[in-house]
C-alpha cells in the first residue's frame, strides 16, 4: 500500500468514527400540495386529488390515491375524463396557501431541532445529533405535532448523512405499514438492507440520464453505488457522484446549510390567461412581474445591476406565427427599488415587442445580484438614495401586514384581464381575511 493510499484510508476511518454517532433527519411532507388542499376540506380525506400548474395546464402534484390513474405532467384537458371516471378532484395551484402552511411547518421543526436546513417548500433536514433518548420515538413526536398543528402528514428518515436520510425517508413512505412514517437506518445492518432494496434512481441527485450511465456500468441499486470506487466515479462523472457514493456508505460529505445563500438570479415568469396582441396589457404584465421580482430581491437583502426581460408566443400550435425575444438592461447603479427595476424592464419591452403576434408568456429576470457594499460604485453614477430604500421598506411592511398588493405601483392592476386562469382555485384560508375558514353551528 502506497503512503497516499494509507493516508486516505486513515482519513476515511477517522471520518467514519466521527460520523458513528451523527443523526440527521429529513422531514418531508406527503403529497404536500394535495395535503394542503385537504386541510380545510375534511370531506376529501380519502378522495384522490391532483393539483394543476399555471393556467390549469398540467398535473404537477398528486395524492397517493390519484397516482395509479394520472401521471405527473399530464395535460389537464387530456385527462379530464380520466379524473371524472375515477372521482379525482382537481385544484388550481394556490401557492399563497402552500407557502403559508410550509412556513408554519418549518417553524415547528425549528422549535424541535437544534438546527435545520429548509431544503424546499415541503422538506427540511434537521440535526438530531447529541439529543438524548429514543430518536425514533422523538421523530414520531415531531411527526404527530406537525399533523396536529397543521394537518399535514409527513415522513421522517434518520441516518448518519443527508443522502442516507433522504433514502431513509423514501423507505419510511414506501413501507409505511411497517415504519409508520419513520425509519432510522443508522444501524449498518438496517442501512445495508435498505440500500439493497432501493433502485439507484431512488438515490438523491441521481436523475434519469445518470441512471442510464450507471446501469451501463451494472450499477442498478443504491447498494451497488455505495460499493463502487468513489475515485472512479469522480473521474468518470463528477465530484457530486463521488460524494453521493461516500454518503451512502455513511460518510457525511454534505453539511447542513442553516442559512440559505442569497440567490444569484431571481426570476418571475407567468403564462398569460389569454393570448395578448397589444402592447398595453403586456406592459402591465411585465410591470407586475418586475414588482414581484423586486420584492423577492429585497426579501434576501440584495440589490441587482441588470434586468433581463423576454416575451414569447405559444410554441406548440403549428398554425400560429412564432416569436421569442429578450434583452438585458443595465441599471445605472445597483438597486432593489421596484420603480427602477420596473422602468428598466419596460424599457427593454419597448425594444423587443413586435406587433402582429399573439404573446403567451413574459419573464423578468434579475441578474448580477450582490449584497449592498459588495460592489465598487461608479464614480459618476448616482446611487440609490436612502429615501428610496425607506419607501420600499414602508411598502413591504404594509403588504406584509395587510396582504400582497395592498400597496403597489400604479402600473400594476389589481385584477388584470390577462391573469393566469385558475378556475379551480381553493380559497386562501390562511392569508386573506375575507377567505378565512368558517364553521357553521347548528
- What proportion of the residues is helical, as a percent range? 40-55%
- Approximate strand percentage: 15-25%
**Alpha-beta classification:** alpha+beta
Oligomer: single chain
Sheet with most strands: strand arrangement:
5-6-1-7-8
Which regions have little confidence, pLDDT < 50, spanning 5+ residues? 1-13
Shape: globular
The total of helices stands at: 15
Describe this entry's structure for a reader.
The protein contains 15 helices and 12 strands. The protein is an alpha+beta fold and 442 residues long. The strands form 3 sheets. A 5-stranded mixed sheet has the order 5-6-1-7-8. A hairpin with a 6-residue loop joins β2 and β3. α11 runs antiparallel to α12. The radius of gyration is 25 Å and the shape is globular.
Itemize the secondary structure elements and their pairings.
Blueprint: H1 3-19, E1 24-29, H2 32-39, E2 49-52, E3 59-62, H3 76-85, E4 89-92, H4 95-112, E5 115-120, E6 123-127, H5 135-150, E7 154-159, H6 162-174, H7 176-179, E8 182-184, H8 188-197, H9 208-216, H10 222-227, H11 230-236, H12 239-248, E9 266-276, H13 279-299, E10 303-313, E11 324-335, H14 338-352, E12 359-370, H15 386-402
Parallel strand pairs: 2-4, 7-8
Antiparallel strand pairs: 1-6, 1-7, 2-3, 5-6, 9-12, 10-11, 10-12
Amino acid at each position: 500500500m502506497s503512503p497516499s493510499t494509507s493516508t486516505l484510508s486513515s482519513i476515511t476511518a477517522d471520518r467514519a468514527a466521527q460520523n458513528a454517532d451523527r443523526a440527521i433527519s429529513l422531514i418531508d411532507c406527503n403529497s404536500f400540495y394535495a395535503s394542503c388542499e385537504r386541510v380545510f376540506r375534511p370531506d376529501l380525506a380519502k378522495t384522490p386529488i391532483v393539483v394543476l400548474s399555471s393556467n390549469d395546464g398540467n398535473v404537477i402534484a398528486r395524492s397517493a390515491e390519484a397516482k395509479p390513474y394520472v401521471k405527473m405532467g399530464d395535460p389537464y384537458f387530456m385527462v379530464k375524463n380520466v379524473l371524472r371516471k375515477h372521482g379525482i378532484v382537481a385544484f388550481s395551484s394556490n401557492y399563497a396557501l402552500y407557502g403559508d402552511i410550509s412556513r408554519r411547518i418549518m417553524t415547528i421543526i425549528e422549535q424541535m431541532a437544534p438546527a435545520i436546513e429548509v431544503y424546499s417548500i415541503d422538506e427540511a433536514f434537521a440535526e438530531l445529533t447529541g439529543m438524548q433518548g429514543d430518536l425514533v420515538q422523538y421523530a414520531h413526536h415531531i411527526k404527530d405535532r406537525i399533523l396536529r398543528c397543521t394537518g399535514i402528514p409527513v415522513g421522517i428518515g434518520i441516518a448518519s448523512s443527508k443522502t442516507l436520510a433522504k433514502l431513509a425517508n423514501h423507505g419510511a413512505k414506501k413501507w409505511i405499514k411497517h415504519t409508520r412514517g419513520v425509519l432510522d437506518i443508522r444501524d449498518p445492518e438496517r442501512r445495508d438492507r435498505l440500500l439493497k432494496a432501493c433502485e439507484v434512481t431512488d438515490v438523491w441527485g441521481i436523475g434519469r440520464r445518470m441512471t442510464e450511465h450507471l446501469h451501463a456500468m451494472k450499477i442498478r441499486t443504491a447498494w451497488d453505488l455505495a460499493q463502487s470506487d468513489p475515485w472512479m466515479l469522480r473521474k468518470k462523472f463528477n465530484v457530486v457522484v463521488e460524494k453521493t457514493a461516500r454518503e451512502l456508505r455513511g460518510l457525511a460529505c454534505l453539511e447542513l446549510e442553516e442559512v440559505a445563500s442569497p440567490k444569484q438570479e431571481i426570476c418571475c415568469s407567468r403564462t398569460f390567461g389569454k393570448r395578448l396582441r397589444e402592447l398595453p396589457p403586456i406592459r402591465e404584465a411585465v410591470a407586475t412581474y418586475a414588482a414581484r421580482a423586486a420584492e423577492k430581491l429585497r426579501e434576501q437583502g440584495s440589490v441587482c445591476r441588470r434586468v433581463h426581460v423576454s416575451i414569447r408566443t405559444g410554441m406548440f400550435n403549428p398554425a400560429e406565427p412564432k416569436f421569442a425575444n429578450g434583452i438585458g438592461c443595465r441599471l445605472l447603479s445597483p438597486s432593489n427599488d421596484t420603480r427602477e427595476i420596473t422602468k428598466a424592464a419596460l424599457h427593454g419591452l419597448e425594444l423587443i415587442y413586435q406587433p402582429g403576434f399573439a404573446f403567451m408568456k413574459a419573464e423578468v429576470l434579475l441578474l448580477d445580484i450582490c449584497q449592498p457594499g459588495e460592489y465598487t460604485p461608479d464614480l459618476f453614477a448616482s446611487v440609490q438614495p436612502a429615501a428610496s430604500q425607506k419607501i420600499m421598506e414602508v411598502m413591504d411592511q404594509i403588504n406584509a401586514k395587510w396582504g400582497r398588493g395592498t400597496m403597489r405601483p400604479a402600473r400594476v392592476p389589481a385584477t388584470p384581464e390577462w391573469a393566469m386562469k385558475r378556475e379551480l382555485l381553493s380559497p386562501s384560508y390562511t392569508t386573506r381575511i375575507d377567505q378565512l375558514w368558517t364553521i357553521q353551528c347548528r
